[in-house]
Amino acid sequence: MNFWTKIRNWIDNRWSSKYFRKSFLMILFITSIPGIVSAIGIYTFGLYSTEEELRKIHVEEINDRAQNIDDQFTYLEESLSYWAFEPIFNSQLTNMDYVSEFQKTRDLKQKLLILQGSHPLIDEVELFVNGRDPILLSPYLSFIKDHNMEDAYQSLLLGSQNVTWDQEEQFIENTKYTNDIVLTHQIPGVVNHPFGAIIVKIDKQKLASLIETLTPYSDGFTMLFNQDNEVLLSTAESNHEDLANVLSNELNKNQNKSSSFQLDWENETFSVSSGQFDRIGSTWTYVSAAPITAITSPIVTISKVIMVASLSILILAFLMTWFASNRLYKPVRNLVNSLTTPDKQKVKTDEFKQIHEQFHALTDERRHLEERLSEQIPQLRQNFLVQLTKGYLYDYSENALKQRMEKYGWSVKDHTFVLLDIQLTGMYDADKVNEEDDSLLTFAMANIAEDITKEQFQQYTILNNYDLSAGIFLIVPNNKESLPTSLHKLAENITEAINKVLALKVTITISSKTEQVKQISHLFEEIGRGKRYREFENQNQIIHLNELQEREYKKKLYYPFELEKEIIQCIRRGRTNETEAFIRQFFNYLVENGNKELNVQASIMQLYSTIQHEILHSGIDPTVLYNGRNMYEELAQIREREWIVRWLVDKVIQPYVDFVENNMNIEMKHLVDEVTLYIHENYMEDISLEICADQADTTAYTLSKAFKKVLGINFIDYLTRIRLDQAKELLMNSNLKINEIAESVGYRHSYFNRIFKKHVGVPPSQYRKIKSNSS
After folding, report:
1. 483-486, long-range: CB within 8 Å, 24+ apart, which pairs?
2. Which helix (H) or strand (E) holds 614?
3. Which residue, 619, 599, 620, 603, is CA-closest to 567?
4. How far apart, in whole angstroms, are the C-alpha atoms of residue 267 and residue 261?
5. Percentage of the chain with pLDDT > 70?
6. Could you tell me the pTM of the whole model?
């Protein structure tokens, strides 16, 4: 048999296979047709759409990046304005002896160095003070001897704007900033007669790197002009200087400073975009030119190459397809050879049919695996419910979820789903306060619930939460009319058994029912909310969520604010025993006025938040104090009154008191408490640090130091905050005039307006108007 005969027989054997023929034709189509179609599409539409898209991208990128640059300048302006209001830049600088008062001079120098490093665009910061002897701090001290230079710096104080980029020619010509971009701010912030100025010199190299981002392509450049169309900065290289001059002239002719167009220059196409930066005292214009010819020209060449390559592939596709089909058929052939006998291999039939027949022989093994799987059904059911409640099965359809439940042995057609929650209580009263017993007690409770449930219901799943609570997931027929009665009886039987065996009380919450699998997660959420409406007493309770009255959800919450204040005062003074007594009164008040767990838990959470606020106010980090524990989560898990009291005292308050006593002078804290009480009672009088010091029988220095250490703020700041808080209250809730309110909080009318606007941001009259409109 010659070579060609072998090849022909080999081809006949392959072509007789249905799988081989289908694979061959499919791969032939895939390898040839899409290539030709894509090549024609690229050649026809690619070039035009690419040019349009590049121009569009250029404009969009310019706008986005220009906004970023504008934000950088705005941040620089706002930062300088903030620094201009620094208390250190006060009128005392004009009469200050900078040589003898070297400590203050050093503080000024440090401030300027901090300002210089506060923004990446700042190259140099200089302070000019027009005092008896005009001086410059840059940041080192120098006296101005040259009259022209002195007049140049004094011109900064004559401008109508306190902060500006646009400097007088006298300043530019007679200072070192001839070719620099400078931002100046008069000091102090906003006054009619400034006595000095802060001069910020911009780092041109960094600014050039920043505006260079306006050019999306490496061969482009960007130019920055001032409002007189003079070039402030340009990133154009030598080969683009002529084009830069053309664009500069075009900008002088064009009234519209914000535009986008395409420019052909020396066999290149440039996408040109311009826009403006509205700066304080000036308007800057930027022009960005980016070449796009270098990007679009390869597209034509590439599309032609793809066209020729696709036609060539069409010729090679047949050989490649034959080879690929043979490779795809090889594993199928090997699988058939391994699964079938030699006699059956000679029969010309569909290979997959032979494989299908062989798989039927594996049914015994499958049954064996199913038997093993059935042993894991309880755990699989629990895992399914967990996944359902966590939202992991949200994308599954209702039918798919029901099919999956049926695979786990549940019968769900014409059935209803109900959930019961069992919560153990009375642990503290039963002297079972060992946390290690929680899992053991929960396990015992779950076993009791399972034994009783199986006597009344056929389909159920016990969910052990391992936190003194468990759930019972029930599937009952839709036509079971006595379901509420059966559920209540089940709850009573479980309660009786747990009381007898474990000697503990129990709260059982019964959810509503649903026929939708996807609504099962809502049953868990409903149980989580509804169980919190139990009465906060150590007694057996059965809660039917269907019978929960609407008034329970809208019941008014009573909160003992006065007891809260007493608790905080005791904590401040480190009196743990008194604090515990007030907490017990606090708890008794809550139980007497709204004994639902939801109300009690919310109030306890609020009390803990207030205690934590006091800890923060004293300068202590709760995260460090409590070693990074999640205190809110711990508190949310406690459902026993005595446990909550002990947790607040032992886990929250005592560590704080110990920390304060070990790290802070308790007498100093008592001193501050005494003075703050005096301030609260006499803030409307003429109060000073010295008066309060005499009242507390101490020195003004000691009292000032104590305020700073204990409260973290100065005495005058604390007094101002108390007075302004009272003023806000009177503005919102009284009809008193502004001058009457000023006098009632200890201020003169004119000074009250200034200090109120300084701290609040708006005048008192406007504050009253805003609050009246919002209410």
Report:
1. 483/416, 483/418, 483/513, 484/544, 484/546, 486/456, 486/457
2. helix 597-617
3. 603
4. 17
5. 72
6. 0.38
